[in-house]
Inverse folding.
């Protein structure tokens, strides 16, 4: 009876060892599968991360249709070009971008992109109009006695800038202090 108990205890130890070993292998196997999945995912991320989507790298020499070139994309690409030469026409900008990126671009898409770029660089016309009033207030505050007149016309219920007159007080005083009281009229027709 004692030998049967020892044998049962021995089998119980072996069974426990085998179950622990199987559990270890199972956990290691799951860990290995999980690790392989992580490695595959990491490699996928590395490929996406390393690919530079802005650089044209294909060996194609043919021109690609520019349907995928959005106005935002064109605006970002043309920002440095427009900053360098703001008077560049949309047609010249179109030719330059087509040559640089080997893409057919519509004139209107390039025109819209240039307009968007100019708004990003210099602001809109509406922002410029509101800045006139801030300029007037700042000049009158910093140089008391200066004259700033802004003439606007109302067309169809909207205010439109017409003209502006600026006379800085220090310039007017300097002109009056340094001006000789002499008026010369030479070869003019006075009526």
């Amino acid at each position: 009876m004692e030998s049967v108990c020892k044998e049962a205890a021995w089998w119980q130890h072996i069974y426990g060892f085998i179950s622990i070993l199987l559990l270890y292998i199972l956990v290691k196997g799951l860990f290995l599968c999980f690790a392989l999945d992580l490695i595959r995912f990491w490699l996928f991320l590395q490929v996406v991360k390393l690919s530079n989507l802005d650089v044209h790298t294909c060996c194609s020499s043919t021109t690609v249709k520019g349907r995928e070139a959005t106005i935002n994309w064109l605006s970002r690409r043309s920002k440095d070009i427009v900053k360098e030469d703001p008077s560049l026409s949309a047609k010249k900008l179109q030719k330059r971008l087509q040559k640089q990126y080997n893409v057919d671009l519509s004139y209107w898409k390039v025109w819209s992109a240039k307009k968007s770029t100019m708004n990003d660089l210099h602001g809109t016309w509406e922002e410029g109009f509101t800045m006139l009033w801030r300029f007037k207030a700042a000049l009158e505050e910093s140089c008391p006695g200066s004259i700033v007149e802004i003439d606007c016309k109302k067309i169809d219920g909207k205010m439109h800038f017409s003209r502006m007159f600026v006379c800085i007080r220090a310039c007017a005083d300097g002109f009056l202090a340094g001006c000789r009281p002499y008026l010369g009229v030479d070869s003019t027709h006075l009526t």
